[in-house]
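Q: For a teaching handout, I want to show students what a protein-ligand complex looks like in token form. Below are the inputs, and the small molecule is phosphoenolpyruvate. Please produce the holo structure.
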Amino acid sequence: MIIVLRPHTPDHKIKEVAELTKNLGYDPRIIKGIEHTVIAAVGDELTHLSLESLKNHPFIQNVLPIQKPYKLASREYHAESSKVKIGQYYIGAGHFQVIAGPCAVESYEQMKQATKDIVATGVKIIRGGAYKPRTSPYAFQGLGSEGLDILQAMKDEFKVAVVTEIVGVSHVDKTAEVADCLQIGARNCQNYHLLEVVAKVGKPVLLKRGMATTVSEWLSAAEYLLVNGCPSIILCERGIRTFETATRSTLDVGAVAVAKQETHYPVIVDPSHAAGKVSLVLPLAKAAIGAGVDGLIVETHPDPVNASSDAAQQIASGKFSEFMDSLRPLIEVCYK
Ligand code: PEP
Ligand code: MN
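A: Here is the structure, written as tokens, with phosphoenolpyruvate included.
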């Protein structure tokens, strides 16, 4: 950290601040300028006590961190892109994957038809919420453990890998028995207790960006998972809350580019929740591929009109092959 002292701070006060810095476990190096004096506090900011408290000192103008709040997730720590294994399929470091499936698991028949249509396009990883985080308590909350049994049946019948969401600590263990990758949704991106519990299960986690989370906060949430034992993560941009209402959420393509530079873990986009309507899913998916994502997670349902949740944004699974055909040339150009 760099401690900037107020102009013309007297020598005995500079010494006092250096002493305080030392007491917090850092090695203070005093650099005297003409007007300003700065103290470089040498030490690991992530494991030492914070110097934030020094901001209160009457002779201190500012305390500036040097290290990023996320270390294990950062490219400074690990320069090469990392690949993550979901079931038997890799994503990241040149492995592009589409994850597809309905918003919610509604029945065995619904899931079977969706999976059949998805697998026919070559996609190997399916999604579907057994537990749904809904804005309204009156909305469909998911089938719960029955939904997990249906997802297990899909794995057995189609040899697909499964991504499904965790909404609370009470069903983490049962969900982890079925899921190859655990999804943390936008609403829980900064639910740190849930992140800690999910991390300990030892499965890869797909971490969605919160609707009002900065890239730094999102990557710090990823750091929570990694510090607590999560073996690998996939970061997912799904749109943020802005003044714009023409789309359900504003897809932040800039954040994708930043995240790709900042972290070595795979970054993917969910164009469905950003778009909110089916006609916008393809152009947003194309924008994401252009920005360099490692994959997409897309909602598709055999009968979207009668879907229990997110009906407007789900691609009819009978038309999912058209969606994939439209993307394929772009994927080939971008990832050859
Ligand atoms: C979902 O993937 O179904 C979901 C609820 O997404 P989000 O957390 O991005 O809203
Ligand atoms: Mn949904």
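A: Two things your students might notice: The longest strand covers residues 295-301. The mean pLDDT is 96.
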